[in-house]
UniProtKB/TrEMBL annotation:
This is Regulator of microtubule dynamics protein 1. It holds the Pfam family RMD1-3. The keyword Cytoplasm applies. Interacts with microtubules. GO terms for molecular function: microtubule binding. GO terms for cellular component: mitochondrion; mitotic spindle pole; spindle microtubule. It is found in: Cytoplasm, Cytoskeleton. Its main location: cytoplasm. PANTHER family: REGULATOR OF MICROTUBULE DYNAMICS PROTEIN, REGULATOR OF MICROTUBULE DYNAMICS PROTEIN 1. It comes from the Eukaryota. Keywords: Cytoplasm, Cytoskeleton, Repeat, TPR repeat. InterPro entries: RMD1-3_a_helical_rpt, TPR-like_helical_dom_sf.
Length: 231
């Protein structure tokens, strides 16, 4: 299995996500292992996230369902596998996001549980830290009106703060500098929420400097333009 994992990781690093997925799927006929399953979840996620134009909702839903199902298969084999926990949480999170904010609020304690458990097992995974940071920011940035409305429609949203979000996001940045444009964007958003204008501008610049061509990079750059106008 080690040789297959090395080959799959090399393909993933080169951005050959479909080839990586095909290799891993073929190996499942020989052995069903958590280390294969979480890598499959990651491939399915990156296949849509790396596209230059944002996929249709149906395509995103299909991809995120695969992320969820592959990660869950690995989690069912080994509930202590940190990567399976992280990607299972991502699958839950992305599927809930597609259904709107109220559905996300209803589900958000679930993915937080899996990410927190993953971070306890492996405290040095930047993907987990970014996920936790965005989760915290989303709750910290929620207006009082939105919270009251959500409470009348369903469960009361959990609480968090910009500072808590920033701690996770900065840790992710230390672990994988400039590795995620989304992480850079949310650091800028946290600094804006905290009233730290200069640091917000600094991270907005990092977003503009990001060279990725995926649709998420263009969306992030559009967001920071609006962010800068609002300072």
């Amino acid at each position: 299995m080690d040789a297959i994992i090395s080959q799959a990781d090399a393909l993933f690093k080169e951005g050959k996500y479909q080839e990586c997925q095909d290799l891993l799927v073929d190996y499942l006929d020989k052995e069903k292992h958590p280390e294969i399953y979480w890598r499959l979840a990651r491939c399915c996620y990156m296949k849509v996230e790396s596209q230059q134009e944002k996929p249709q909702k149906s395509e995103l839903k299909d991809a995120y369902t695969e992320v969820h199902d592959y990660a869950k298969a690995g989690f069912d084999i080994d509930p202590e596998n940190a990567k399976c926990l992280t990607w299972y949480g991502i699958g839950i999170d992305e599927l809930a996001n597609l259904e709107g904010q109220q559905e996300w609020i209803k589900r958000c304690p679930t993915q937080h549980y899996y990410w927190t458990k993953a971070a306890t097992i492996d405290p040095n995974d930047y993907v987990t830290e970014t996920a936790l940071g965005i989760w915290c920011f989303t709750l910290a940035d929620m207006t009082k009106f939105r919270r009251r409305l959500s409470s009348t429609l369903g469960p009361r949203p959990p609480s968090s703060s910009y500072e808590e979000a920033l701690n996770h996001l900065l840790k992710s940045e230390e672990l994988e500098p400039k590795g995620s444009v989304k992480n850079l964007l949310y650091i800028a958003k946290c600094y804006k929420g905290m009233g730290e204008k200069d640091k917000c501008i600094q991270f907005c610049k990092y977003v503009f400097d990001y060279r990725g061509l995926e649709y998420g990079a263009e969306e992030a750059k559009s967001e920071v333009r609006h962010l800068l106008y609002s300072l």
